[in-house]
Amino acid sequence: MSAAAGVTSVNGARLSGGPTPAPGLPPVARGFLLEVVRYASEGDGRAVPVRVPRVFDGSRDALREIRAQVRGSEVFDMAARDIARVNAELASGRRVALGLLDAGMPVGFTVSLENGTVAEWSVRPVRLLVLPAPHVRRHTPQPTGQ
Asked: Which residue has the higher pLDDT, 19 or 140?
């Protein structure tokens, strides 16, 4: 994918944008960053990351991962009633969330669970530098004289 028209900043580095990157600069791709955090209670202001943030190629993939985490209840050890309720809420807001993400807007999903924990998933569009993997020469040991 190419950068949007105008100047794009990625991790503080200013890149000239346009349909094609400037000569010598790596291309800029679009991704969707998924972050999952937990709060001990509704009044707790300290978010504790539950998983390492992950970048997906498409908005649908990021939302699909949220549903997979909820169905598996692996992230928050949810009760069966919580799983059913959260899945229903996710299904009802899916179309709106996809539209917002594809328009470049972030979305979030927060739910209070039966055990008092607050679970929060957030997805936001990000721009990524596409860097080629460095070429690594493999050293093949030469047999030594016997």
From this structure: 140
